[in-house]
From TrEMBL, chain B:
It comes from uncultured Thermomicrobiales bacterium. It is found in: Cell envelope. This is Formate dehydrogenase O beta subunit. Its EC number is 1.2.1.2. It comes from the Bacteria. Keywords: 4Fe-4S, Iron, Iron-sulfur, Membrane, Metal-binding, Oxidoreductase, Repeat, Transmembrane, Transmembrane helix. The keyword Iron-sulfur applies. The keyword Metal-binding applies. Pfam families: Fer4_11 (PF13247). The chain crosses the membrane at residues 293-312.
């Protein structure tokens, strides 16, 4: 929401160019050991490594500095870094920082003078009001901001990002997207350019000196002024010397000649203010001038296998392919034109949204999608609330949702408040589990603690359970999209045994059978299903060598994803070829270009850079968008287009390079962006090109605006829109905490999501019955809920039993010895684990209290070669308001010797 | 936009100062593990005399090959342990249903007949946590230049290969256990599946096919590096210099010279005393304890066929093995400052 794309700005291999790496909210060495090799290479080349984390982990063991901090206090730590940086002598005297920040960010943009900050309102922003639940009833918000006063003074600019979409879909009455668009008098598309043109508003006003008291920079300076090193220590427990060492190290390693990168993972996301933590890191990296540059940026360490892919072509409820908002009844999405009005950003690359959307609709309904019927837009499903995992479990509990398909998911172990997850499974009419092994979810009806403990009887469970065995990755063609947006193809090596089938086969066959069942229906609601294009039958030569003859055609699926000319089927070279008139078909615009011509599958290309090269490896697989490896890399050059330094050269303006002639420009003037990477910018737009205030798309940005997805081309220090819980990161306490917020009167995120009910009761602040801070996490040796590791003897023996990590201080207090059996409890449940007493855990002094941390890896369950208690039985269903993620990294518990 | 295509020179101590795209330390100084040990394509098929018979090698030259383990970049992921078991098809302890050891993150605990790779975890923290380290080291057979196991093996099952590595041939091992106490590092144990003494072969089968060992290939951080010993020593010395330049006074190499049983073909870069890692400071070979005459007379006794002693001998050898292992393991387990 600060930069424009919901993805890592860099790639792991780029860390070798870092002079300093801050790892926070991540146990990278343990959970991403392969990516961590590049951290070690950077270290061997002299880079400084900092790990900020409550525990001393295998990552910390490799770090130069360990900044221990209380779980959930990261915004206080990052806010402290921000305050330290902008008040430091180096930042205020080295001209690099001023030039980068004033040109590439919205630091100078004037904000609505009616905006009131947490400084004025003791921890809340202006616009807070009560939340009214809608029809769905499970959105869970505890409050709601009207963000009118957060806007640019000149008027609102929209934001197109999945973070905002999530919240919008769960809210009523809040109109972000394209605020004010409802009132605009706009025509009906197609063509849609006039629709987008009508959305244009005057560009924002700015004070390039950053002195105006209402400019974003001055607001953020005031906002973070109380995040002093003393306060950081008081809130986080991190001793000041380690905090200052971190700050000095990052400052010294940022600038024209040096860069610092930040790596994070679910240690930042799983909080009731997770996106704000990540936003604080983005803010810091913008202030330090590290965005878009080699060895800089933010590396979001996505989960495993293809988690990035599962948001690109999403299994998410709130967005459709390529991060377009899912049509919803909660916004003005009635017609396709309405949708475009609400979601397109006229002065950004998102001005092209109609092209992406129409091409997507063509991929859904093929020839049935015509300009006359809005390309089938009316057939598209709409969401009407927060349909993410936690509310859906509650809807299962309530009997609203009657069936579940769990594919590659094991909620009986991996879901928060796993007791409630299993009880919800027992309310279903039917459950399908498709997995490698009979998971805890598949076996809940006879082997869950609730059944074996006598709480419910198998014969009283109405759920019909179907188990389908899965093919493994080497048994199918397919691709992974890894943490760096890199799509890598993998070839089928063998047929799967017996009835095991790929998820694609299963989904395709299910769709075929459903289409048969819908056949002949004249009900309007069924027409979308009937018109759905659903033809992935393999060509004979694709399955010739295999025993399984009906595995869907990977090639046909990929053609649809890449896009083709609707009439001819000719593959499209890239998303720049997309049209909004139905003449192109493309399922996911961001992947367009991955299969640009016959016989050229770029995801399968395997040509690495030679040793000694920059390591962009542009011919190794395919990185969306357009094979760019470092995003926003226009910022790797000075405003005038020359590299910031020889040492940090990456992408630059070459005034003499001549673009290839096109039909539109047969004799193009010389001047192109060049570099080691694919420029994330208009290839021939000169650094001194002015913005055209009357043009839509990127012509509305100047040659110095690197953030092409944003409505103003700037990196956002201040986010007027896109986040439902505030334009600046603010320290709140986790919902469950032993500590009163030392910074503000406001204790927790005022709009977080709660679902209070029997079996899901939260602990009050400071309840002496649950005095310890608990984090759940993973180990190198196991994978998630253990389905891919606890069944494998070679992995099981490495970490065979569930353990709870506690400090010797806490162990002494509680009379616990190493490997003693210990009971850990919360109001949701209790579990048993063996104590691992270690000085790697340490008590922290926070706000005049001694805070003990308790650590639990959550890989165990009641199935498999090795078994153990389900740690998530302890967790609470509580959500972040922007993305509905749970708070698994910071809640409270009690620990006793069993 | 042409960048250099030659291999980057080795790491230099100190921070990076060269631009991207030019050769130098900005490029990772340690190539990917796969690139570390490119089989030599020229001058292959070196032939050496082993046990009187000329042996053709695969693609590697017949020269001393082995491991250099830089413990400072070991992240304790245990990929080496798993890769070893997968390649060599070794069983998991109790089918995987092992017990939590409580010894840091080490649950496989030692090298033995079914664990040919083992990662040690050593926690060193003072009470205030102002000083703290978590040392990790992937341990393995040292493939000693003077190998105690090879000295004592009565059947000739233990051989020295053309790569100067030490391999137990299972088909000629009679399970007598003589090699177990003979190893000063506690590496060897009888595998319960086939009842022969087993240990790391340095993936002899892979080396013969021009592949690098499974463990070093799996190592994500190039902590385990495989290659010709002379090359590895050069790399290790550079890294040692770099660390010493950074003020890591305790950094040292173990087994890189001939002071430890003539040299180790698996040698280590450590940042503490060897005993901390469970490595003996001054390992001794069995032959040191055996005066030449006594050795001859023992051979004579054996030749006379004192077969009744075999059972007793086995019992004693088991005892020796247990002692040797306990002393080897003590450094790690008793880690003076382990929490708790």
């Amino acid at each position: 929401m600060r930069l424009g794309r919901g993805a890592a700005t860099t790639y792991p291999g780029n860390l070798v160019h870092s002079d300093c790496i801050l790892i926070e909210g991540s146990n990278m060495a343990e959970c991403h050991p392969v990516a961590f090799r590049f951290v070690m290479q950077a270290k061997l080349a002299g880079a400084k490594i900092i790990h900020a984390d409550p525990r001393f982990t295998r990552t910390t063991a490799m770090a130069d500095v360990h900044a221990p901090l209380r779980a959930g206090s990261d915004i206080a730590f990052l806010g402290g870094l921000i305050n330290y940086v902008i008040n430091s002598e180096r930042w205020n005297t080295d001209p690099f920082f001023k030039e980068y920040v004033s040109t590439y960010t919205n630091a100078g943009t004037i904000i609505n003078p009616e905006f009131q900050d947490t400084e004025d309102l003791d921890g809340i922003f202006s616009g807070l009001g009560p939340y009214q639940e809608g029809e769905w009833g499970l959105n869970g918000f505890t409050g709601q901001y009207d963000n009118k006063t957060w806007q640019y003074a000149q008027g609102p600019v929209g934001d197109q990002g999945r973070t905002a979409n999530t919240a919008q879909s769960g809210e009523t009455g809040v109109s972000s997207g394209q605020p004010g668009a409802e009132a605009a008098q706009v025509p009906v598309g197609p063509p849609f350019d006039p629709v987008v043109q009508a959305l244009l508003k005057p560009p924002p006003t700015s004070d390039p000196t950053l002195q105006d008291p209402n400019c974003a920079f001055q607001i953020l300076k005031r906002h973070f002024s109380r995040y002093t090193p003393e306060m950081v220590e008081r809130v986080t427990g991190c001793p000041q010397d380690q905090f200052i060492a971190t700050a000095d190290m990052m400052l010294a390693n940022s600038g024209a000649e040096r860069t610092t990168s930040i790596c994070y993972a679910v240690g930042w996301t799983q909080h009731t203010y997770g996106p704000q933590m990540i936003g604080a890191a983005a803010l810091l990296q913008l202030l330090l001038g590290n965005m878009g540059r080699p060895g800089g940026g933010i590396l979001a360490l996505r989960g495993h296998a293809t988690i990035q892919g599962s948001t690109d072509i999403p299994t998410l409820y709130h967005s459709i392919h390529g991060y377009m908002a899912h049509p919803t009844i909660l916004k003005q999405h009635e017609t396709l034109t309405d949708y475009v009005k609400a979601e397109a950003l006229p002065r950004s690359y998102w001005a092209n949204l109609p092209k992406f959307m129409v091409s997507y609709l063509k991929s859904m309904w093929g020839e049935a999608a015509t300009p006359e019927n809005d390309f089938g837009y009316g057939w598209h499903p709409r969401i009407f609330g927060d349909h993410s995992h936690m509310p859906m479990v509650l809807a299962m509990m309530d009997g609203e949702v009657k069936g579940m398909m769990a594919m590659g998911q094991n909620p009986a172990v991996g879901g928060q408040n796993a007791v409630m997850q299993r009880l919800a499974l027992a309310k279903l009419d039917w459950l399908v589990v498709k997995d490698n092994f009979e998971t805890e979810t598949a076996a809940f009806w006879y082997n869950s603690p609730e059944v074996t403990g006598g709480q419910i009887a198998t014969e009283d469970i109405p759920t019909e359970v179907f188990f389908f065995p899965s093919a493994q990755v080497a048994e199918m063609d397919g691709s992974y999209t890894n943490t760096q947006r890199l799509v890598q193809f993998h070839h089928k090596a063998a047929d799967p045994p017996g009835d095991c089938r790929s998820d694609v086969w299963w989904t395709y066959e299910l769709g075929k059978r459903l289409k048969d069942l819908y056949a002949g229906s004249t009900a309007p609601r069924d027409q979308g299903f009937l018109n759905l294009t659903w033809d992935y039958e393999p060509e004979p030569e694709e399955v010739e060598q295999w025993a399984i003859k009906d595995e869907p055609s990977f090639d046909k699926i990929l053609r649809e994803i890449n896009g083709y000319e609707s009439g001819t089927g000719k593959l499209l070279p890239s998303f720049t070829a997309l049209k909004d008139d139905g003449s192109t078909t493309c399922a996911s615009w961001i992947y367009s270009g991955i299969y640009p011509e016959e016989g050229k599958l770029r995801a399968a290309s395997r040509n690495p850079d030679p040793v000694g090269g920059p390591g962009t490896n542009l011919n190794w697989a395919y990185s969306w968008p357009a094979n760019r490896r470092v995003l926003y890399n226009r910022a790797a050059a000075r405003p005038d287009g020359t590299p910031w330094s020889e040492r940090k050269k990456w992408v630059w303006w070459d005034p003499n390079k001549v673009p290839a002639p096109t039909a539109a420009a047969p004799n193009p003037p010389p001047g192109m962006w060049d570099g080691y990477d694919v420029p994330d910018f208009v290839a021939n737009k000169a650094p001194n090109a002015p913005a055209d205030p009357n043009a839509i798309g990127l012509a509305g940005h100047a040659g110095t605006d690197p953030f092409i997805m944003k409505a103003d081309g700037k990196g956002w220090l201040f986010t007027p829109t896109g986040l439902v819980d505030g334009p600046l990161p603010t320290h709140y306490e986790p919902l469950e905490t032993p500590v009163r917020n030392p910074l503000y009167g406001q204790q927790v995120n005022p709009v977080l999501k709660r679902w209070d009910r029997e079996g899901n009761v939260a602990v009050e602040v400071g309840d002496p019955a649950y005095p310890y801070v608990l984090s759940t996490y993973r180990l190198t040796e196991h994978h998630l809920s253990g389905v891919m590791s606890r069944w494998l003897p070679w992995l099981a023996e490495l970490q065979p039993e569930l353990f709870v990590e506690i400090s010797p201080e806490l162990a002494t207090e509680k009379g616990i010895q190493n490997v003693d059996l210990v009971r850990v409890s919360t109001p949701r449940g209790q579990i048993q684990a063996k104590a691992l007493v270690t000085r790697r855990m340490r008590p922290l002094n926070v706000a005049d209290q001694v805070i003990h941390h308790v650590g639990l890896p959550w890989h165990w369950g009641y199935q498999g070669v090795v078994t153990g208690s389900v740690v998530n039985d302890l967790a609470l269903l509580v959500g972040d308001p922007n993305v509905s993620i749970h708070e698994g990294k910071a809640f409270v518990c009690n620990v006793e010797k069993a | 936009m042409a960048w250099q295509t030659q291999a980057s020179p080795p790491a230099q101590p100190g921070p990076v100062s060269t631009p991207i795209g030019s050769p130098g330390p900005a490029t990772p100084p340690v190539a990917s593990p796969a690139a570390q040990a490119t089989p030599s394509t020229q001058g292959a098929s070196g032939s050496v005399e082993v046990a009187g018979a000329p042996v053709q090698t695969g693609q590697y030259n017949a020269e001393p090959m082995g491991f250099y383990t830089d413990t400072t970049v070991c992240i304790g992921c245990k990929a080496c342990e798993v890769a070893c078991k997968e390649w060599n098809q070794l069983p998991a302890s109790n089918g995987g249903a092992n017990l939590l050891s409580g010894l840091s993150y080490d649950n496989t605990r030692r090298l033995d007949g079914e664990h040919w790779r083992h990662v040690r975890f050593i926690e060193q923290f003072d009470e205030s946590r102002s000083q703290g380290r978590w040392l990790m080291m992937s341990d393995v057979c040292k493939h000693c230049v003077q190998a105690g196991c090879l000295e004592v093996c009565p059947t000739g099952a233990i051989i020295r290969t053309e790569f100067d590595t030490v391999v137990i041939q299972s088909d000629t091992c009679n399970g007598c256990r003589a090699c177990i106490p003979a190893c000063p590092f506690g590496v060897i144990e009888v595998n319960p599946v086939n009842n022969t003494a087993m240990k790391c072969t340095l993936c002899y089968d892979r080396l013969q096919a021009g592949l690098q060992p499974a463990c070093s290939q799996a190592c994500p951080t190039a902590s385990i590096q495989f290659g010709p010993i002379r090359e590895l020593k050069g790399r290790a010395n550079m890294r040692l210099e770099q660390l010493q330049g950074q003020g890591v006074d305790q950094a040292r190499l173990y087994g890189a010279d001939d002071s430890i049983v003539g040299g180790l073909n698996s040698f280590y870069l450590l940042v503490d005393e060897p005993e901390v890692y469970g490595l003996p400071a001054n390992p001794q070979l069995p032959s040191r304890n055996v005066p030449t005459g006594a050795g001859l007379s023992a051979l004579g006794a054996a030749a006379l066929g004192v077969l009744g002693a075999v059972g007793l001998r086995k019992h004693r050898m088991d005892q020796f093995a247990e002692e040797a292992r306990a002393s080897a393991a003590s450094g790690a387990v008793d880690g003076e400052v382990r929490g708790g």
